[in-house]
Design goal:
The structure is a homotetramer. Chain A is mainly alpha-helical. Chain A has two domains: about 20-65, Homeodomain-like (Arc Repressor Mutant, subunit A, Orthogonal Bundle); about 70-205, Orthogonal Bundle (Tetracycline Repressor, domain 2). Chain A is about 70% helix and about 0% strand. Chain A is built from nine helices and no strands. Chain A has helices at about 20-40, 45-50, 55-60, 65-90, 95-110, 115-125, 130-150, 160-180, 190-205. In chain A, helix 1 (about 20-40) crosses helix 4. At the C-D interface, helix 6, helix 7, helix 8 and helix 9 of C face helix 6, helix 7, helix 8 and helix 9 of D. Chain A binds a DNA duplex through helix 1 and helix 3.
Amino acid sequence: MATRPPSSLTPETGPATERGERTRRKLLGAAEGEFGERGFHHASISSITQRAGVAQGTFYLYFRSKEEIFRALVEHMNRTMRRHLSEAIAGAASRAEAERIGLEAFLRFCREHENLYRIVMESQFVDPEAHRWYFTTLASGYAERLRAAQGRGEIRRGDPYTQALALIGVAFFMGKRHLLWGDDVPPLEQALETATAFIQGGILPPEGGGGEGAR
Amino acid sequence: MATRPPSSLTPETGPATERGERTRRKLLGAAEGEFGERGFHHASISSITQRAGVAQGTFYLYFRSKEEIFRALVEHMNRTMRRHLSEAIAGAASRAEAERIGLEAFLRFCREHENLYRIVMESQFVDPEAHRWYFTTLASGYAERLRAAQGRGEIRRGDPYTQALALIGVAFFMGKRHLLWGDDVPPLEQALETATAFIQGGILPPEGGGGEGAR
Amino acid sequence: MATRPPSSLTPETGPATERGERTRRKLLGAAEGEFGERGFHHASISSITQRAGVAQGTFYLYFRSKEEIFRALVEHMNRTMRRHLSEAIAGAASRAEAERIGLEAFLRFCREHENLYRIVMESQFVDPEAHRWYFTTLASGYAERLRAAQGRGEIRRGDPYTQALALIGVAFFMGKRHLLWGDDVPPLEQALETATAFIQGGILPPEGGGGEGAR
Amino acid sequence: MATRPPSSLTPETGPATERGERTRRKLLGAAEGEFGERGFHHASISSITQRAGVAQGTFYLYFRSKEEIFRALVEHMNRTMRRHLSEAIAGAASRAEAERIGLEAFLRFCREHENLYRIVMESQFVDPEAHRWYFTTLASGYAERLRAAQGRGEIRRGDPYTQALALIGVAFFMGKRHLLWGDDVPPLEQALETATAFIQGGILPPEGGGGEGAR
DNA sequence: AATGAATGAGACTTCATTCAT
DNA sequence: CATGAATGAAGTCTCATTCAT
């Protein structure tokens, strides 16, 4: 399970001076806006550079292609989101609580970074490798925590990776409704409650025991 | 919650003769292959018509645009998948059993119709309206059943639509792993077991009761 | 010694109808003008299509790239020139006479087909494979004739292929002066006389014999 | 007949210090490699400066444009080759011997300076003026020698410039085969023998006399 | 004397769509 | 009902050249 960007990732070109670094960041920011709002294929390099306030040619000083900046974005988002979630659940008393907090943090975070959600999902069709890496990475870290919680008898036994993926699936599909279709949708709070109950039922050990480190 | 194709859907053009019907189906089949294998944007009308064995111009006798045939495909898949799943769970003794059977049926079905999965997911970026309709439709029907089961005390109370979406999310994210990344993945059976436990834990009423119409 | 277009040559795409054939010829004609006048790299597809009176996209119905039409042109010119020269020397009484006639025919032909000369020479830098094929082909046919003449004792013995190449070299370098730099140049006739003397001295058997296979 | 670089040639810019001179030479060397290996149009200033180990901007301190450095290269090669050939034939006892030695020296020299041959030929399409100057210069010097030899009755009478061009043509076309296509080619020695016979037959006075100082 | 980031014009190529047959 | 040649807009990318440091 690859937990590191495939060697094909990361190798962007580009100046390394102070000024260069600034330009690079401007491009990434502009690209996030474009890709998020218009989607990969409707986005054009020229809009990106316009947004960034640089000439078209400048783009290619930093990224070899449209695909490459997209990939860089996906990697960036992976790091950002994981850091954010880690911090959010840092103080959780139990795995169950971590789940509740984590789900809410995820949805709030996505709401504030509208483009992130869309870009990550679209990556499946733009750069499947990066997409896979994104989720594989996320799920692996997640699974690690679940495995530990299983060890402590806090949650139901089972393949932790599958559990992680299931939890991620719940979060992302709730995202569809609340981030994408958010018209006539019940308030987030109510959905969170139901979802949390679902999740906790899904991972908490069956009442009768079975999660108690036993087996 | 739209449960019917928005008026913008469905209105394909096209002859109604016997021969015409055949051509139309050939085009849809070819499009499914192209879109599934190369993605919407890399697919070209000319490849589709080639695959279908008709001239390029013929395409526009049946569909007004590339987007339109894509949408038609999404609708077709919606019908197909729902029918298939209904039949699969028809004989289930309980909601819990229906879930187990349904999840497995879903994954097996997608495996046999490789392109379906991809096309449905990509529709988010090609025709968000159709995408939304696809899942909204699916979730509504699903929610209906869950609501009934709640009424019978078979499952945990809560917003059935949210439950439905969560269940769909679990299924689709398992699909990512087992349909898309299927390299070094544990056998489907094992994952199904964990996932089923997760799902059933997630929807079954808490042991102490509480699903029984009570509360 | 490849005497047939390498498999990479010849495979142009393109409609095969009557109208298609006409368009194709228009494109080839336009390309010849462009390449001849402005050189391969300064020529642009758009000028070519403009000259031909078709839309830009039409170009790619017939040729896969700028390189491909260039190659097609080189092949076409190879056929044209060889046919012309064959016909010109058909009635020559001896090899020596054939050379004289051939050289003159070559120069006159190039003068009437200004672009041909330039395109063939430039092919060395655009498509070395085609360039090689052009001259290899030309030299092989030529060498065949020389070998036969050697057999008849009409000309000096020696590697006929080398002789052929030398003769071609003389012709092409005379072309430089008389076709390309033709400003303050002595009349063609005078140069032809010197060149013919040179060539005939070069190939005729040494007086004392040496072509002794015959005579 | 221009025997001196047209005023448009030669006027490169550039510092005159010790260090500056070194940089200039590094650039010329790098350009020779690039132009020789990839051709004028595929060569890029940035590769040239990279090879030379200087920054891109530095290039324009020494040459006003890509064309200018190319021209400088052609001029340089002209000087180099002429000097080399002069020296090679210096001790030749007769014009005939000089030709034999000269042809061989030419081919050996080109083999050791692979790029020279290609660059000189390509100059026709990059800077026709420089190309013409290159050959005009070469042919004029050559013709001078031939004229003298005619005077001494050593060689056949005729326009010496045409003779010179013919001889150059033979050499350059032998170069095509032995420098460019050198795969399945007979050993250089054998070709040299045939070519020498050809050349000497071509220029030596007809046996019966005619070169005897008469006229 | 040198640097190297930035520029921006321009080229090739693709492809959804139209239309005369 | 079908054909397939033609269209032309749009987009990615390259690269010679400039300029502030």
